[in-house]
From TrEMBL:
<keyword id="KW-0132">Cell division</keyword>
<feature type="transmembrane region" description="Helical">
    <location>
        <begin position="341"/>
        <end position="362"/>
    </location>
</feature>
<feature type="transmembrane region" description="Helical">
    <location>
        <begin position="304"/>
        <end position="329"/>
    </location>
</feature>
<feature type="transmembrane region" description="Helical">
    <location>
        <begin position="145"/>
        <end position="165"/>
    </location>
</feature>
<feature type="transmembrane region" description="Helical">
    <location>
        <begin position="20"/>
        <end position="40"/>
    </location>
</feature>
<feature type="transmembrane region" description="Helical">
    <location>
        <begin position="61"/>
        <end position="79"/>
    </location>
</feature>
<keyword id="KW-0812">Transmembrane</keyword>
<protein>
    <recommendedName>
        <fullName>Probable peptidoglycan glycosyltransferase FtsW</fullName>
        <ecNumber>2.4.99.28</ecNumber>
    </recommendedName>
</protein>
<keyword id="KW-0573">Peptidoglycan synthesis</keyword>
<feature type="transmembrane region" description="Helical">
    <location>
        <begin position="177"/>
        <end position="210"/>
    </location>
</feature>
<dbReference type="Pfam" id="PF01098">
    <property type="entry name" value="FTSW_RODA_SPOVE"/>
</dbReference>
<keyword id="KW-0328">Glycosyltransferase</keyword>
<keyword id="KW-1133">Transmembrane helix</keyword>
<keyword id="KW-0472">Membrane</keyword>
<dbReference type="GO" id="GO:0051301">
    <property type="term" value="P:cell division"/>
</dbReference>
<feature type="transmembrane region" description="Helical">
    <location>
        <begin position="85"/>
        <end position="107"/>
    </location>
</feature>
<dbReference type="InterPro" id="IPR001182">
    <property type="entry name" value="FtsW/RodA"/>
</dbReference>
């Protein structure tokens, strides 16, 4: 793209202020998403009886293309518009997530999805990035609004925790809580309150173990594989071993046909079998680069809202990727969480794109706070 630094158009100012390295890394992940879609989805489409395998694939191609557009469009927004978008998105997603409890589709014992004409969405996916930015805004306004800002944030967080626990979606709850704790740490919360949050988290996990059979079974199978069905994890580990260093080649994997969630939760295992260890390390490196690059971008930042918002978005992005890859490698108990931009799933892809678009918008270089406000 040949744009002069003297170009004062919206596109020109965006190009010279956005973090182009992070943008390139994100687009590379989208590219991996296309490749893994072609590798993992056909077999899954046939197994689940999709009416048209091509439509199954084209649907995700559309979502990936839309995600690319979403990243770019949102990254152009000024900081104030990002804040407004996050607030509206968080409240809307929370209301829709509440609606899943009464009119949602139940899958595997959980109500997390809403059926809309032609599409099924998971509203809580959109709540994650929006809440990270809203929490950053309310925390940064604490000095001006005092207890009002902190009270509003506390009520919002408790509402989100309650609805996610009711669905139930413990993985999503853990990610949201972890992001919130990371932001509290950055803003400088009292160490005793940090300890109290840790105790509450431990007690919550213990309570979930005894109150939720699904959660208890997954943890028991992780600690003692002989205690239950570990079929998917076993096949995933075989896929990594079969792929070796360079993989068996695109489309040549055989174990992916045995993985029910090869296109989603275990897409990293498909990458391991067909493309090998080197490509898996490349994917891991891209996620690590985006997170570290984003944090380094904040070193000279003085706006606390930008610091907290970007920290929350990066924590969420990195944690979601870690959970997916670590589950496939049997490093943690299995959890149905997608690998950002690589796994199949429209809600996840678009929601992550919204978060990364916000990240790019928040971390754009600005000459001064006054110039930032003018935008």
């Amino acid at each position: 793209m040949a744009l002069s630094r003297a170009d004062t158009s919206t596109l020109g100012r965006w190009w010279w202020t956005v973090d182009r390295w992070t943008l390139a890394a994100l687009l590379s992940l989208v590219g991996f998403g296309y490749v893994m879609l072609l590798a993992a989805s056909p077999g899954v489409a046939e197994r689940i009886g999709a009416s048209s395998r091509d439509m199954f694939i084209l649907k995700q191609v559309f979502f990936l293309a839309a995600a690319t557009a979403v990243i770019v469009v949102i990254s152009v927004l000024p900081v104030k518009q990002v804040r407004r978008l996050a607030l509206l998105g968080c409240l809307g997603a929370l209301l829709l997530t509440m609606a899943t409890l009464s009119v949602g589709v139940e899958i595997k014992g959980a109500r997390r999805w809403l059926h809309l004409p032609g599409v099924t969405i998971q509203p809580s996916e959109f709540m994650k990035p929006c809440f990270a930015v809203v929490a950053a805004w309310l925390l940064s306004e604490g000095k001006n609004w005092g207890i009002k800002a902190h009270g509003a944030l506390g009520l919002l967080f408790l509402a989100i925790v309650a609805v996610l626990a009711k669905q139930p979606d413990m993985g999503m709850l853990m990610v949201v809580a972890s992001v919130f704790c990371a932001q509290l740490f950055v803003v400088g919360i009292n160490i005793f309150l940090v300890g109290a949050c840790g105790v509450v988290g431990i007690l919550g996990a213990v309570g979930a173990y005894f109150a939720m059979p699904h959660f208890r079974d997954r943890l028991n199978r992780f600690l003692d594989p002989a205690s239950g069905d570990t079929y998917q994890v076993t096949v995933a580990m075989e896929a990594f071993g079969h792929g070796g260093m360079l993989g068996v080649g695109p489309g040549e994997g055989r174990l992916k046909a045995m993985l029910p969630d090869a296109h989603a939760d275990f897409v990293y295992a498909v990458a391991g079998e067909e493309f090998g260890l080197l490509v898996c390390l490349m994917i891991l490196g891209l996620f690590g680069f985006i997170v570290l690059r984003g944090l380094l971008r904040l070193l000279g930042e003085r706006d606390m809202f930008v610091i907290l918002g970007a920290t929350g978005l990066l924590t969420q992005f990195g944690l979601q990727a870690f959970i997916n890859m670590a589950s496939a490698l049997h490093l943690i108990p299995t959890k149905g969480m997608t690998l950002p931009f690589v796994s199949y799933g429209g809600s996840s892809v678009i929601a992550v794109a919204i978060g990364m678009g916000m990240l790019l918008a928040l971390t754009r270089r600005r000459i001064s706070r006054s110039a930032q406000d003018e935008e």
